[in-house]
Design goal:
The protein has helices at 14-28, 41-47, 53-62, 81-88, 146-162, 180-192, 205-214, 226-239, 277-289, 293-309, 324-338; strands at residues 3-8, 32-36, 64-67, 93-99, 112-118, 130-131, 138-139, 167-172, 199-204, 221-224, 247-251, 256-260. It is of the alpha/beta class. The protein has 2 domains: 1-96 and 243-338, Isopropylmalate Dehydrogenase; 107-240, Isopropylmalate Dehydrogenase (3-Layer(aba) Sandwich). A 10-stranded mixed sheet has the order 2-1-3-12-11-4-5-10-8-9, sandwiched between helices. Strands 6-7 form a two-stranded antiparallel sheet. α1 (14-28) packs parallel to α11 and α7 (205-214) packs parallel to α8. The protein starts with a strand and ends with a helix. Bound molecules: nicotinamide-adenine-dinucleotide (NAD). Nicotinamide-adenine-dinucleotide is lined by residues 13, 17, 69-72, 82, 243-244, 259, 262-268, 274-275, 278, 317. InterPro entries: IsoCit/isopropylmalate_DH_CS, IsoPropMal-DH-like_dom. Residues 4-331 form the Isopropylmalate dehydrogenase-like domain. This is Isocitrate dehydrogenase [NAD]. Belongs to the isocitrate and isopropylmalate dehydrogenases family.
Length: 339
């Protein structure tokens, strides 16, 4: 049976890495049909709108989108398109896997950590940010709710069960932020009781940063609030060699958007050297989400094998001599062989 997904190529290197990703998906024969729609500068220039209604409608209709990076123009009162998408579709879970790949310039090998970040509340509220008239006092609100905390912690545990993970660590600052972080922690403790098969651990955020740098192997799944998750997931990406291998999944009840964590990289756009792996790994997560777990695993394995045995085909950011196209072709060949 075929499944239609919304595809948003995006800006800058977006169209290049999207073409590479779709080449690998096609090699896997997933039965996906692509409804290509626009957002970002491309959409602004063509339709006078950074996020046209047709794009929102396509995501709502197909419930799954694969998205290239989008450029939000600086100034002019534009809100980030990514933030708008998150709010519009209530994409409450931001899932950021950090996996080691061979032959990359990373501090550690054998890392496999998934950060599950609450994506809609916490310290990132649009409202409640004030500055006094004299400019001397700036204030913002942190708001965590029982509902928001419960659904993100439950998401992390459900994901751990589904993916055969062993341990969930709730990261917090409840010793100081007794109300907001305290509520999150007490909800995490409650929800953890429903999953006795998964080890539950809790850690204060500053200690978590140190532990991640010193002994990352002790982490499996991390669940945390918005601001801490934003910071920790980039820290984890750094542990495995940076943004070129970092996918980001934005999951809600009614829609899910899969993307690379990096931006539109205007400095290398059009040069054919963008690394397609972050978007490819997002596509692998998308296949997991669609129930095609073996195919998602095949993409990750093909990237691993290409980097281990055919490193020259990789893009220069990973130390290779290849291009976006040579890298994608090598990965596509391996998934075809494995099928
Ligand atoms: P960036 O991630 O685009 O680039 C940072 C550096 O990493 C650059 O040197 C770039 O060449 C390199 N890089 C990024 N992706 C790469 C890839 N796939 N292969 C090889 N090298 C890569 O960050 P930026 O320059 O701060 O942002 C550029 C634009 O992207 C901005 O308009 C920003 O708003 C947007 N952005 C979008 C998203 C998104 O849509 N999810 C995320 C971050 C930034």
């Amino acid at each position: 049976m075929s499944k239609t997904i919304a595809v948003i190529p995006g800006d800058g290197i977006g169209p290049e890495i999207m073409a590479a990703t779709l080449e690998v998906l096609d090699a896997l024969d997933c039965g996906l049909v692509y409804a290509t729609v626009e957002a970002g500068m491309v959409a602004l220039e063509k339709h006078g709108d950074l996020l046209p209604k047709a794009t929102l409608d396509a995501i709502a209709r197909h419930q799954v989108a694969l998205k290239g990076p989008l450029t939000t123009p600086i100034g002019g009162g534009f809100t980030s398109i990514n933030v708008t998408l998150r709010r519009h579709f209530d994409l409450y879970a931001n899932v950021r896997p950090a996996i080691s790949f061979p032959g990359t310039k990373a501090r550690y090998q054998n890392i496999d950590i998934i950060t599950v970040r609450e994506n809609t509340e916490g310290a990132y509220l649009a409202e409640g940010q004030t500055i006094s008239e004299d400019g001397e006092v700036a204030q913002s609100i942190i708001r965590n709710t029982r509902k928001g905390s419960t659904r993100i912690v439950r998401y992390a545990f459900e994901m751990a069960v589904k993916k055969g993970r062993k341990k969930v660590t709730a990261v917090h600052k409840a010793n100081i932020m007794k109300t907001s972080s305290g509520l999150f922690l007490s909800v995490a403790r409650e929800v953890a009781k429903e999953y006795p098969q998964i080890e539950f651990n809790e850690m204060i955020v500053d200690n978590a940063c140190m532990q991640l740098v010193m002994r990352p192997e002790q982490f499996d799944v991390i669940v945390t609030t918005n601001l801490f998750g934003d910071i920790l997931s980039d820290l984890c990406a750094g542990l495995v060699g940076g943004l070129g291998l970092a996918p980001g999944d934005n999951i809600g009840e009614h829609a899910a958007i899969f993307e690379a964590v990096h931006g539109s990289a205007p400095d290398i756009a059009g040069k054919g050297i963008a690394n397609p792996c972050a978007l490819l790994l997002a596509a692998a997560d998308m296949l997991d989400h669609l129930g095609m777990v073996a195919k998602g695993t095949a993409i990750r394995q093909a990237i691993r094998d290409t980097l281990a045995h055919e490193h020259d085909a990789a893009t220069p950011d990973l130390g290779g001599k290849g291009s976006t196209r040579s890298f994608a072709a090598a990965i596509a060949r391996r998934v075809r062989q494995a099928a």
